[in-house]
């Protein structure tokens, strides 16, 4: 880092994210209109009720899941953060919020530095297009020139070992091939901030070894890494800070060793009781 | 200077500013939008022997049959009627009708991408309009052939349709933002739009000529689609430019833009949750 390139950071202030559940009700215009009319007639609003910890009904009658609640967090350059917690604790939502895909209902997200997110294997690839066409689109998305796209193509082609499958649509690829392509593409540039969801550790051992090599070089060069995984060895090896999420809130945040011990302890007592 | 910082601080996070940034960033990615639109077309016709020509030949068959039936129904000379209906039908079907129905799917069809990468939403509007503009230009071959066969030359007058097409592009983008947002939120809107398209097809002079309305013609401008289609169609048919029609077309367009802006500014931040 030099003075022309200020240090990356992520800062979340009072971040809350609700997911509307339209599937349950008020998805259609008809229902929305009728519910409004009903409200006017009865002259009262439905009571703001909470069922359990995370599902709530807002004033507009929408049922929402409170995926994240009042998160305050600051991540500085040099930190390798691991997110832990149960499925549905809000880990992936937090990553998507940092990426900017989900905009907060309340609170602020600020960050500096280029962000690359490895959120799903197919990371926005079009399954009907060929591997080569998908690489081309990714290059265009990153604003690369045609020459740079050729370099990207070569790099990814070599890593993913697609050979003649390069010209065939992705939907006929094996899951391993899709994963190699997606992984190769997402790791072809070195971002300032790297966000990873746990899928990147799936795949056969041969892929894992290859992937790890590539990932290590990126993780080492990125200023900030945030990853979610259930694998404690990975957290121990890669992270110097652990954030523990439960029901959309941070319940512990600190050095790897300390938090992981606490986590393990809770898990054990949980399984005993 | 202080005013500028003040504006900066208060607007940085405002949804107006965010929506504006979205549109600007979307335009910056026009190359990507173009590629996406082009790949959409390629995929749509992959595996069909005729490729994009398939849809062109369907429209050609439709125009031929409608031309013969309606020219006898309306007791009009085929020589006069067929060029009109050829142009009208193509402009309607591949211009207005597809823009309305594809606009609804603008964000819904891209849900996979929207959930995995941060990209401007406006990019999806650009992609839809690029795709439809390309398909429309393919299909303009039909009226071109009919004009050639019937030996009709619109002359230099035809160039006046260029600003008309430009208006269509801008309106199309606005329609994508407007309907795309509404349809992402309310899933029954696309069906409503589709029935609306069917109805409006008959009340807009597509298969019948505006002059057939006789003294009721003055009411025609209250149908927004009439001036909007006529700014492109009239010059291509070699008719003189009617400034009143243009004024109405621009007026209706401004209403569409305002509605689109209002809806997009409010909906943009919630779109990722809706789709």
From TrEMBL, chain A:
Which Pfam families does its entry note?
A: ABC_tran
Tell me which residues make up the ABC transporter domain: 53-272
Any one of the GO CC terms: membrane
Which family, according to the similarity comment? Belongs to the ABC transporter superfamily.
Q: What is this protein called?
A: Polysaccharide/O-antigene exporter ATP-binding protein
Recorded hits in PROSITE patterns, A to Z, give: ABC_TRANSPORTER_2 (PS50893)
Cite the entry's keywords alphabetically: ATP-binding, Nucleotide-binding, Transport
Keyword check for Repeat: no
Q: Name one GO molecular function term.
A: ATP binding
């Amino acid at each position: 880092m030099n003075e022309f390139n200020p240090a990356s950071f992520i800062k979340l202030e009072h971040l809350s994210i609700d997911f509307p559940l339209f599937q349950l009700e008020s998805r259609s215009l008809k229902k929305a209109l009728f519910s409004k009319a009903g409200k006017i007639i009865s002259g009262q609003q439905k009571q703001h009720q909470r069922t359990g910890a995370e599902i709530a009904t807002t004033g507009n009658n929408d049922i929402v899941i409170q995926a994240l609640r009042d998160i305050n967090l600051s991540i500085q350059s040099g930190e390798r953060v691991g997110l832990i917690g149960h499925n549905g604790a809000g880990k992936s939502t937090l990553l998507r919020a940092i990426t900017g895909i989900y905009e907060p209902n309340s609170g602020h997200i600020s960050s500096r530095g280029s962000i690359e997110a490895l959120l799903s294997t197919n990371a926005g690839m079009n399954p009907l297009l060929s591997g080569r066409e998908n690489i081309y689109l990714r290059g265009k998305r990153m604003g690369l020139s045609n020459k740079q796209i050729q370099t990207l193509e070569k790099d990814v082609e070599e890593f993913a070992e697609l050979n003649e499958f390069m010209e065939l649509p992705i939907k006929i690829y094996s899951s391993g091939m899709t994963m190699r392509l997606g992984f190769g593409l997402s790791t072809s540039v070195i971002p300032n901030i790297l966000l990873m969801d746990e899928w990147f550790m799936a795949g056969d051992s041969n892929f894992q070894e290859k992937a790890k090599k590539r990932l290590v070089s990126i993780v080492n060069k990125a200023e900030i890494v945030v990853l979610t995984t259930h694998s404690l060895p990975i957290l121990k090896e890669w992270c110097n800070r652990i954030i523990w999420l439960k029901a959309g809130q941070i319940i512990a945040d600190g050095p790897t060793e300390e938090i992981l011990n606490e986590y393990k302890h809770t898990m054990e007592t949980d399984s005993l009781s | 200077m202080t005013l500028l910082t003040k504006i900066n601080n208060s607007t940085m996070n405002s949804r107006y500013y965010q929506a504006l940034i979205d549109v600007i960033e979307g335009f910056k990615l026009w190359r990507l939008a173009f590629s996406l639109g082009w790949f959409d077309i390629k995929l749509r016709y992959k595996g069909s022997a005729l490729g994009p020509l398939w849809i062109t030949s369907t429209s050609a068959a439709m125009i031929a049959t409608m031309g013969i039936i309606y020219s006898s129904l309306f007791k009009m000379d085929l020589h006069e009627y067929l060029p009109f209906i050829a142009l009208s039908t193509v402009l309607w079907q591949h211009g207005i009708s597809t823009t309305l129905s594809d606009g609804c799917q603008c964000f819904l069809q891209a849900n996979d991408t929207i959930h995995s990468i941060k990209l401007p939403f406006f990019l999806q509007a650009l992609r839809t309009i690029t795709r439809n503009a390309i398909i429309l230009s393919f299909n303009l071959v039909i009226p071109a052939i009919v004009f050639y066969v019937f030996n009709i030359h619109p002359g230099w007058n035809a160039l006046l349709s260029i600003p008309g097409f430009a208006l269509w592009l801008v309106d199309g983008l606005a329609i994508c933002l407007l309907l795309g947002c509404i349809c992402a939120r309310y899933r029954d809107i696309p069906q409503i739009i589709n029935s609306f398209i069917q109805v409006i097809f008959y009340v807009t002079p597509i298969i019948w000529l505006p002059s057939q309305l006789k003294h009721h013609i003055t009411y025609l401008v209250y149908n927004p689609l009439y001036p909007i289609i006529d700014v492109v169609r009239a010059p291509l048919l070699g008719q003189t430019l009617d400034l009143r029609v243009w004024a109405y077309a621009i007026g209706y367009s401004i209403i569409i833009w305002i509605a689109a802006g209002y809806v997009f500014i409010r909906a943009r931040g919630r779109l990722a949750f809706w789709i």
